[in-house]
Amino acid sequence: QVQLVESGGGLVQPGESLRLSCEVSGISFTTYAVGWWRQAPGKQREWIGDSPTTGSANVVHSVKGRFTISRDNAKNTIYLEMNNLKPEDTGVYYCNVPGTKYWGQGTQVTVSS
Length: 113
Hints:
Blueprint: E1 3-7, E2 10-12, E3 18-25, E4 34-39, E5 46-51, E6 58-59, E7 67-72, E8 77-82, E9 91-96, E10 107-111
Parallel strand pairs: 2-10
Antiparallel strand pairs: 1-3, 3-8, 4-5, 4-9, 5-6, 7-8, 9-10
């Protein structure tokens, strides 16, 4: 049974940081890319970036320089480090295995003063 479990969300003030985690089980983690997405209230889910099996992670241009994706193969986990958070970063953050039906349940991030 494939499971993706996100954690690390919460309420922060603008300018603060958060690190989200996505722990993956039930698949051979090192042979799959894992991605991060987010969905803001009233908007469609948008892709943030992917952690490939090898090489550097990619993030969408709109968050480049603030968001970083990394992976720890020993822990079957990918991370989304988010710095200088803005109110428009508010939303539910999901991880997924690209090209499959496998998604996590999401973790809420709220950026508000």
